[in-house]
Amino acid sequence: MTQTKLNHTFHVPVMGVAFTIDSPIKLAPLGISSVISMVDDTLLEQMRAYYANQFNLAYEEISNKVADFRAKRITSYLNLVQDIVQIKFNQVKNAAWEKGSELEKYFRLLPDTAPLKKEFMLRLTLSGFDAHLREWVQTHLLAGDIDINIMTKLDRENEMNGEKLPSEFNDAHAALRGFAQSNLSSSVVLSAGLNPRLYSYFEQFPDFYPDAQGALKKRIILKISDYRSALIQGKFLAKKGLWVSEFRMESGLNCGGHAFATDGLLMGPILEEFKQNRDTLKATLFELYSAALKEKNIAVPAKPCEQKFTAQGGVGTAQEHALLLEQYQLDAVGWGSTFLLVPEATTVDDATLEQLCRAREDDFYLSENSPLGVRFNNIRNNSMALVKEHLIQKDRPGSSCPKKYSVLNKEYTVDPICTASRQYQHLRLHDLQSQGLSPEVYQKEFELTTTRECLCVGLTNSALLRYQIPTKYYEGAVSICPGPNLAYFNNLVSLQEMVDHIYGRQDILTRKDRPNLFVKELQLYIAFFKEAVSNSDQPINKQRANYLATFEKNLQAGINYYKQFFNENQLPNAIEGLAACEQELQSFSLQIPPVVIA
Q1: In a domain? residue 545
Q2: How far apart are CA 360 and CA 338, in angstroms?
Q3: Does the pLDDT of residue 5 top 70, yes or no?
Q4: Does a structural domain hold residue 430?
Q5: Which distant-in-sequence residues (6+ apart) come within 8 Å of 552 by Cβ?
Q6: How many Å separate Cα 285 from the centre of its chain?
Q7: What is the number of domains present in the chain?
Q8: Alpha helix locations (H) across 265-358?
Q9: Which range of residues forms the domain containing residue 538?
Q10: pTM, whole model, 2 decimals?
Q11: Does any domain span residue 520?
């Protein structure tokens, strides 16, 4: 199979629920790929109505009373996005060649090293923008991908008319079906780990299998945190005749959204392991994949299919971007939180944009706000947090839980409920009050319980505010999940300025004291480790002791790796930051009191 040539060496990952909900409409016509969240089908339906009106396209509401409404809403929205992207992409290709035109912008955004840009400029120099070059533009320009994201753990069971529906109507399953039945030829990004039942459901859809030429209409991207996870999930899918077209490695802590921390394994060593084992991984998966296709009587491609490796999390300079591409032989790098400050690319309401521009390091923190029980990168005093605090002060903590996408907890009920809901928090606090806890312990548990936030609403409201779409749920209250890297970007910028920054044609950093992305991640992990030690019960049990020992060992191994890496790549500021991190880790280790292994 031929290797796809990427025009751009970056992509815009999924952010929250609403922040990239329509990013492909803004970016794909200009050749840039981005990812839409599939969590909230109600929001997708609202956005479909909005954009159908904007582009004078037909719209017929899909009510939640219709059978399989979630999948149908998702299919309809994705088809609409593709139609709009095609309209705008045709406008780009048919635009005049003049300063400020969409065609000129398309090429101006491309990296100067892009073969497409080089060939276009050569043809333009030789013959001008004549009929032959116009024809060349029509056949050679590529739109960006319209990819979608499914959080595998958000797979709520559903019912209709009081009767439980089969598993294919679970939330994640329905999202997959909605994508599979759409007209898109793009990728589904699977995040949050392995869901065996969901992964097996892929087998139902022909678009995930190769055609006679070995091409895939729809592709699978796995967002993973380490090599082991990639191998396990890749094998699981390959044995079913499903190919992973891209492994998207994300930093465990130096990222936006949910933080899936590793056991102290750091981004650099993880990428090094991928680099060293890339060919072995591909060959291993292709062997399993080929056997599965034969068993299904599907023609096996003559050679291994395309398999990209990309990374994201905390990247902030052109130098870091280039270093990741070159040193780890990556196909692309994801730039996430920084694009929140680019209104041409993402969808963020004015008040939240202003807060993001004002924020500094101390405003960004790793919270316990997510009802999923996974740590969540957050910004202090966002508008949803203020609503949450107001409810606590009224002695009515918790959300009314209007959307119920995160109903996963059965601690106190037969049917699952959300830990951010008023129902759960009332039951939990009543339970705590009955346990005779000390005031200090009770207060700690009270704060942990009531910090859970209604992300289903908070992560969608920004788009509704931006487009003045009415909502009855916590109007004006927004949750947002930027990574800590955003502390060093304090101004709204244009798409051109951000892309120029990525490719080293401009520097938009407002502060020059930003640490190297690997050093920043290490700082976050050391803070995470110190917190883990502090929160460990004494005497510590053997399992916890082993976890902490492994964590510290992995951190030190990462530090040793970076000593050589930073020296080889002549990064003096990173070397200085690394030394400070190592000293902090060693000083803290000396302060850890001896523990009795139970």
Answers
A1: yes
A2: 14
A3: no
A4: no
A5: 264, 529, 585, 589
A6: 24
A7: 1
A8: 267-295, 318-327, 350-358
A9: 515-598
A10: 0.97
A11: yes
